[in-house]
Amino acid sequence: MTAWQISPATERVELADGQAEVVFTVTNPGPVDTRATVDIVGSEQAQASWFTVAEPQQLIPHGGSKQFTATVKPGEKAPAGSHWLAGRVYSADVAPEEDSVTSNRVAFEIKPPPEKPKSKDWLWALIAGGVLLLVIIGVVTALMMRRSGVEVPDVVGKPQAQAEQMLKDNGLVPKAAQQPSDAVANGNVISQDPAAGASAKKDSTVTINVSSGADMVPIPAGLVGMKVDDAVDRLQKAGLVPGFDQGASSQPANHVYKTAPNQGPVPKGSKVILYVSTGSGGTTDVCKGINPPKWCWLRVTDVIVPTFMPPFTVPVGPGH
């Protein structure tokens, strides 16, 4: 279970034109790369529809951080007063209640609408006539829209089944297409055509691109027997993350003698462990084969430790 860390960039935001943005920094202190989901919780009177997060799911490398941008847009009918929001982060593959972490609160104020100036008595008749005219125009417009088409709902980010049902409920025909994505969870909608809010004829088709999960890539062939630096470059060009371990083998020192996993395909961005040969005995310098310095993993008394330190020699023998 990942011990997530999340912090807002500010303690308070001001709404400009009815909205504001808050940036949350999420850190993954765990030992493995993990996909994080961020959503927003708010004060008692706040509604979930006030908050949206751009790219709510992102892959965060171990020891690394990424930023998530949340938009606050309460709407004209939101109750005036003091409110707050907080970011909540949890692992994308588990329920929020299992390992979620909530940030410090960010305060915001919804100001009451300005009072309208009092109209003179002679204007009331003109205002009443204008209101009646607007009502008539609205009714006619609504009737014309009902005959000509329907509004396309926003289904981006929704699970495929929910998105298809929303489109059917609005008199539209969904057409799903699969597309790999590192940012959107498997089975959720990446994009739609026509876009949300567009007018479409009843029974017309709306295409939704549904995430098939991370793109799968093969593990490069020929890593075994290769110099460790060459193997690292080969993995990175394939979109994979190298990890390191060492052991004695018949391969020359600083050459790869096996990998884990040893065959693919695997999700793009996965870690592939390179087992680096120490030769037939004595000492070896696993970091020496990596230039410029990258992640280097050394086994010292049966403990794997990551280091960015300059290369140094590690004794190889019983107990090491």
Question: Topology of this protein?
Answer:
Blueprint: E1 5-8, E2 20-27, E3 34-42, E4 51-54, E5 57-60, E6 65-72, E7 81-91, H1 96-99, E8 101-102, E9 106-110, H2 124-148, E10 150-151, H3 160-169, E11 173-179, E12 189-193, E13 199-200, E14 205-211, E15 216-217, H4 228-237, E16 241-247, E17 256-260, E18 266-267, E19 271-277, E20 282-284, E21 296-300, E22 303-307, E23 314-316
Parallel strand pairs: 11-14, 16-19
Antiparallel strand pairs: 1-2, 2-6, 3-5, 3-7, 4-6, 7-8, 7-9, 10-13, 12-14, 15-18, 17-19, 20-23, 21-22
3D structure, described in words:
With 320 residues, this protein is α+β, with helices and mostly antiparallel strands. It contains 4 helices and 23 strands. It folds into 3 domains: 5-110, Immunoglobulin-like; 150-211, Trypsin Inhibitor V, Chain A; 216-297, Trypsin Inhibitor V, Chain A. The strands form 8 sheets. Strands 3, 5, 7, 8 and 9 form a 5-stranded antiparallel sheet that branches. A hairpin with a 2-residue loop joins strand 21 (296-300) and strand 22. It starts with a strand and ends with a strand. Residues 146-212, 213-278 form the PASTA domain.
